[in-house]
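User: Structure please.
Assistant: Input sequence and predicted structure:
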Amino acid sequence: MENPTVGATTTATTAETIIHHTTAFLSKAIADPELRNHLLALLHGGGRTHFAARFTAGSNLLKPHSLALEAVEKAIAATNLSVQSSSLAVAEKLLLCCSTTPFSSFLLSLIYSLVHQPAKAARAVLCLFRINPSVARSKFAPDLFQELFLVHLLPALRWFEEQRTRILSNSEAPPTTKVLSRMNGGQTRELKELEGIYEQVLDENCRVFAEYFINEVLSDGSVAEVGPPPAVVLGRGEAGEFAIAGFGRYNPIPKEEDAASTSSELCSPFGSSSPSSTPNSSSHHPPPATSSPAKEAVSPAPSNSDADDITSSSSSSSTASTSSSVSTPPSSSLSTEKNKRVASVQPLPYPLPRSNKQTRSSMAGFDSLQLSTTYKPSPPPKDFVCPITNNIFTDPVTIETGQTYERKSIQEWLDRGNSSCPITRQKLTSTLLPKTNYVLKRLIAAWLEQNPTSSSPPIETPPRRRKSAAAVGEPTSTPSLSPNSVIVAAAAVDGSVSELRHAINNLCMSEILDESEAAVLTIERFWQEEVKKIKNQNRGGIDVQSVLSRPAVVSGFVEILFNSDDPAVLRAAVFLLSELGARDGSVVQTLTRVDSDVDCILALFKNGLLEAVVLIYYLLRGSSSPEELMEMDMVESLMAVLERKESEMVEMCMKPRSAAVVLLGRMMASGEGSAVEAAIVEGIVKEGDDVVAAIVVSLESEWDEERVSAVGMLLKVMKEDGRCRNTVADKAELAPVLESFTGGGDGEKFEIICFLSELVKLNRTTYNEQVLHIIKDEGTFSTMHTFLNYLQTAPVDQSPVLAGLLLQLDLLAEPRKMSMYREEAIDTFISCLKNSEFPAAQVVAAKTIASLPGRFNVSGKSLTRAFLLKCAGVEKSYRILTQNEHQQAGELYGQTAEIEERAAEVWDMKMASALVSHEFGAIFEVLAEGMKSRNSELQSACFVSAVWLVHMLGILPDTGIRGAARVCLLDQFVAIFKSAKDNEDQVLALLALKSFLNDPEGLQDLNNNMKDVKKGLRELRKSCPLAVEVLKDLSEGKDNSAELWNHKELVQVDCCENGEVLSIACFKDKIISGHSDGTMKVWTGKGSILHLIQEIREHTKGVSSLVVLQSGNKLYSGSLDRTTRVWSIVGDTLHCMKVHDMKDPVHNLVVANSIACFIPAGTGIKVHSWSGRSNLLNSGRYVKCLSLVQGKLYCGCHDSSIQEIDLATETVSFIQSGSRKLISKASPVHALEVRDGLIYSAVSPLDGAAVKIWSASNHGQVGSLATTMEVRAMAVSSELIYLGSRVGTIEIWDRKKHIRVETIQACTNSKLISMAVDGNEDILVAGTSDGWIQAWEVS
């Protein structure tokens, strides 16, 4: 048997290449603890024999290894740089004190990688290949072996193949018998010996190249390209050891003048069978029983046809015998073909091994390694060359004159204004170029394969390095290089090979579309069968990929895409191109050379061939910006992919949904708030929950880029339309997302943190806690510890959001006195709020604190501000933000409302307690500073946060922190309460101030501002129940409330020419007066002067009553002229709509929706229906005054009696009897008002109480006002009672305390006949008997 000689290859290896691959390998080992532990166990177990052989005290040797390993693991886990540095220094010292072993070399490589010394790390890794090459190349780092060593050892592989073929060619069995069945015992022994030699050859060459890489290529850390050892000759010496012969210790490159002779000498075994030409050949002899000189001298000649690349060694033994009898030198074209096929070894996206057949076919093409220096490449045929550029066609187009040109060249010719053929000069009828001439393109591709050294046009698209298996979410299959795999792969395949060859020929050469379409379907079937075999762990017998990846075949597929309209064929072609593109970058390179090919695939995708998204992904991978991707207008089609069920799509190397998600993610990478991002988010929101659910599925992907893309899209969609948040929270698997956080960069980590923070903004507190538990408990590592480590090094603008999430996770458990997570999170909030150099981080920190109470609506909007307003009695904002909650949650929400509210209260208290307890209220100081900021966002967020925390202090047990909060915030709250233009801000400030009023110190601090506070309280009392409550607290224990109220006279108007002012009504900002001469006047109440805007004289007698219904813009006027008029209030004027004849003079008119009641000239009360019917009630009494409330009519009579009449049943009930007489004269009820279930009646003051108060429900007296005035008019507001006397005096009484607040005097001493308070209770208006109208401002 011949000795193997390894010839030099033209491939050069640089230090940059070595460092790149070793760094990637070590980075994976550092990031993946399971992989690291596996490698360490492998080296520890595999190296024990080696250690024991060299050292007697093996057990003592392992102790420093153990200590060093422990130090390295501690450094990897450490977050403190000083701890990491010291641990690595200790480990390095321990290892350098020991002898070099695979175990220590690997630990040293980890250490140097962690301290960023890649050259040292690379040398340490290469030491493994020098010490124990067998374990290193087959188990420890097979990928490094392929990338750094295998490319130099292809001649050894070819030598092994030749020897194996020679042994198998001597079989005497029938040709139809399988190869393994034809072998005899001698062949089996010879093959086993061959395998052993082959393994030793690989090991020895690994040692040589590792030594060379360490001492030559990496000697100075340079990246200069250095050639590998040109030759390694292996043979057995007398001692039985392998000897290495070369050009020196490390086989440096020989001088140029010696290269040719040296190469010829070293390569002789591949061109000649003479053993004497091989150095040291005499030291090795083949087994005599298994070989003969004839067999050793001959190598089988391979076929030159394309079909040989897809056929196995199933050719008949007779052919082998014939070829072995005569040795035929290979032709130059065959040598060129063989020299071209140097297989590049790279991992595949999923297990479709090419190594068996591919390695064989590659080695079969190297029967002769004699690279003739006299070889001249054949010139291309003239039909393959563009007449304009003189270069081989890349994209040939044939115009109407029959001439063919390169597309770009002829387009430039036409763009310059030419309209004729450059060669024939014939006029062109159209300047639009036709489709690519694919027939010519395929012929050129085939010719280039046969003539690889001929000049060909430059490739514009640089070759793309295929990503690792992790990048496409599929397991990696590494080609096997063991001799056993090569022998098994040599098994014969059946006659289906000819069918596949025929299909490929039809695809490439047939001019009949149907035949080409059928060929595509046949090829797809073969491909699927091969995939199925691999998945079933059976070896494929046909190397389909190597043939289908040829440019001619790829062009055939593309031509099918241009011309076919069969969906099945188009889908099959796209499927095959996607599978090939995933495994072979040259396929993508071929497709992207011509823009029209890519345009065709895009058009098919947009027209509904959704599987094309996978091929588009590979074509655009890494070559297009987000803007360029957006210009392709694929968003709608990508959405369609997400909507389509996976069961309706073809199973491919990558899921179409995954490709769509990644492409959309890359489009959105153009930046926050970009038009691209907005368009995609709008499209996702428009499509609804189905698309969102499809994106959520991608969170579980094994492909990290897909997970990160899905996180980014879902984050932006939740911010745009928070209603999808429940869908995401319900369906998302968060463990893979947390794994992406562990291995991601800063940008990806922050995006994941924002996503998780948005996810816990659900509208139910219990759901938020469930999601927080999942985040806390899922993941390989401790989530809280991981977040804490990142928080300590995160950029300032990312810290607040992360701190908020970490604080929420910490509070899931029962609050503890101390927690490093809580302390770090709150310290982060405080430091961000203090740091004015980062205003954006200040705003985010304040907003994050304001959202920590955990109350959100269904859209994820924080309800903290609205809830605080609700606590103050102002519920409008809260109702608006939650108006859809009950409709969407329905009955379920009603059943769980109590549970949810209780959970929210508990969470609120836990969160507030944690924040205010930190460093005895340190948070209040920074919030107070934030409230002084000119940044409105920061000021508002700090204000809401401060109000929430101070409000919670009133609920939490007082531990003295309330005093610290008062010192920091009281003045700020008072200032906002006094000066805020927004009533809601005033209410929030009041809510915070109320918490301080519970303390004597707080009340004392408010004394200096008490007057301004009370003024603000009076202004708020109508819109905020809390203001009324605080006013009550402030006036508690005082005999009167005079200082709380002030009535300032605004204006007085003399209307004596119109007689008495019989009636007054207020509507919005207008005052309407009725006079005894029948005149009605409309005044504007704006400003400090009453402006007359309308005067009406339609009644002929006095207008005794004016009534404004709250339900509409209508005014009713009752007159002594026996009519009631209905007026519409339009703008600032009144328009009479209808006149009702009442048959009697109208006194004291009261109106409901369908009836009117008034006092006629005689006894009783007249009830008048607007339809014209009238009815007399209470006919035995002379009624003086009326009031109508909710179908009940209350009458005050001349005999001082008071009755209640139910209008529905006409039942009369007595509230006060009227039997009492005073000096034979009646004591009438002069005024009667009903408000809030109480009846106020004004009678004679002779018994010391002119006004008595009755309960409308039980008719019992509940109080009285001790006034001695003779009351003639009365008005009641929500807090005050106004009594007008017959001498022009008005007394003002507190409704609740029944004490006199103030007394004011009208401009004259005349009798007060009418009084009214406007709707806002800000203005009091009175009319006198001498015709004066007077107004006061209530404050």
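The chain has a mean pLDDT of 75.
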